[in-house]
Amino acid sequence: MFIKCKLKAIMLFDRFLLLNQTSSGKRFKLLRNFSIVSLSTFILATLWLAVFYRQRAIHDLIILSEENNVALTQVFSNTLWPKYGTFLSSTQTIPKQTLAADPRIRQLYQDMLDQFEGLHVVKVKFFDLQGRTVFSTELSQIGNDYSQESGFLTARSGTIVSQLEHRDSFNALETTIKNRQLLSSYIPVREAGAKGKIVGVFELYTDVTPLLEHVHSTQRAIVLGSLLSLAALYSILYLFVRRADHLLEKQYQQLQESEGRYRQQASELEQTLSELQQTQTQILQSEKMSSLGQLVAGVAHEINNPVSFIHGNLTYVQNYAQNLLKLVQSYQRHYPNPVDEIRAETEAIDLTFIQEDLPKTLDSMTVGSDRIREIVLALRIFSRLNEAEIKPVDIHKGIESTLLILQHRLKACPERPEIEVIREYGSLPLVECYSGLLNQVFMNILSNAIDALEEEAKKRTYQECLERPWQIKLRTSLLNDQWVQMAIADNGPGIPQPVQQRIFDPFFTTKPIGKGTGLGMSISYQIITERHGGILSCVSTPNQGTEFVIQIPIQQSVGNANSASNVN
Question: What is the spatial distance between Cα 517 and Cα 235, in angstroms, rounded to a whole number?
């Protein structure tokens, strides 16, 4: 723990030195960093202030204009509604063209012009409660249906709604205006004051362009004033920072003398820590595999004794059963008419069925005991508890024992069909190796291949899995008179290139938390390269599959054996 803390402190100090050097490696970057950060901060603060002012001013403008539109609506209710209210409320049956040409519409249009003269109102509409436009200063819109318009629906429920928008061209009162900012307000029209019944919806368009231009000019003044103030502040701070930069540069000259020593010490500590972590990982895994090997060998031994007893006696049982059946058949031939008691017992036990089924039952028991003996032998071969040293072994037996242990994961299940295992074994001599460790490598690679195929199967339907069956191919070959090669390939999703570069790193895993430790492939790499002096490589293509290739010498050199013994 102390080594880790010291290493981190040295690395942080080293980063501090690197961050404060110039491109020439002789000066601090304090002035440049201060200039960039402070100017950026000043500009961002000014922009934020300008944006904040503009948003606030536009918000206040909308509220003020909306209040003005409400007042104009009240004027309409007080002055024009008593005169035109009865007519406007009874136009549902009047056709659109007739309504637009009605003289009262023309008179209302003229009264509107007189009422809003000198104001910034550019357009007025009135909707009845059914959403029909019964009046508009743009006569072509009279009779249009706005019953589904959100603004109309909101105003009809008693709530005022306004929206600010820019129009490139707009048909205003007796003219066409261009490039203007307009505020449209949907306002409920009440029959008798603020508490009266809603009789319609008034829509006013107000030209707020002059007010917005005033906001923009004020915003520009704020930005200019802020920039001038911040520029003065920046000048004062620059003088202080420049002085601090000179002081730091002197201190840096002193720190530079010890920088090399700290870097070397940090490198040595980092290397030591890495070696300690790897050694700790190897010790833990070695103890784990040793305990596992003892457990597997003990279970195999305990199972082997009773199974051997059963298997050995099955031959005698078969002979006894055959002799007894022959004796019964002889009795049946010579005494075809037994006494009533024997006939009744024969029918009760269904002697004919027993004569047919007993040999089949004994054959099934023999097959089952043979299977158990094969599994026990596979466990003993996989654990290799009595073969801790290097010795010549049959590589194929190690692979087959591993496959037998993983057989339950290869079988078909409701989510996917069976994973097919294709064997392409070459003719190999006995290979000198740590057989238990080599079996561990086979187990890690095969387990990862099955995991990858199972994860990919979750993304497909059962029928899709049948159309492209999952396969694991095992190939062995003799490279030359000194080396052998073993390849394990699957047709799964493959491994992305960034992951391939880290697949043998300690503690690196792509599996969910709790499912993988990130040690399997790292330890497998150490077993092949360090303990056997071989090569372990990975070749993968996305959506096509992954292949791990193991190459080891047929005879281990003295150096490899000593290295392996030291690690153990």
Answer: 57
Longest Cα pair distance anywhere in the chain, in angstroms? 136
Q: Look up residue 544 and give its DSSP letter.
A: T
Give the 3-state secondary structure percentages of the chain, helix then strand then coil, rounded to 5.
Answer: 60, 15, 25
β-strand partners of 540: 546
**What is the rounded CA–CA span in Å between residue 136 and residue 323?**
115
Angstrom distance (rounded) from CA 423 to CA 446:
13
Q: Which phi and psi angles does 185 have, rounded to 5°?
A: -130, 130
Q: Average pLDDT across each block of 10 residues of the chain; the chain has 568 residues. List them in order.
A: 47 49 48 71 78 79 79 77 78 80 82 76 85 84 86 86 84 79 86 75 84 79 77 76 75 74 79 71 56 58 68 76 83 82 83 81 76 68 58 88 83 85 92 85 88 85 82 92 93 84 72 61 85 90 89 77 39
3 and 269 Cβ atoms separated by less than 8 Å: yes
The pTM (predicted TM-score) of the whole model is: 0.41
- The residue among 367, 357, 369, 399 whose CA lies nearest residue 382 is 399
Kindly give the pairing relationship between strand 161-172 and strand 420-424: unpaired
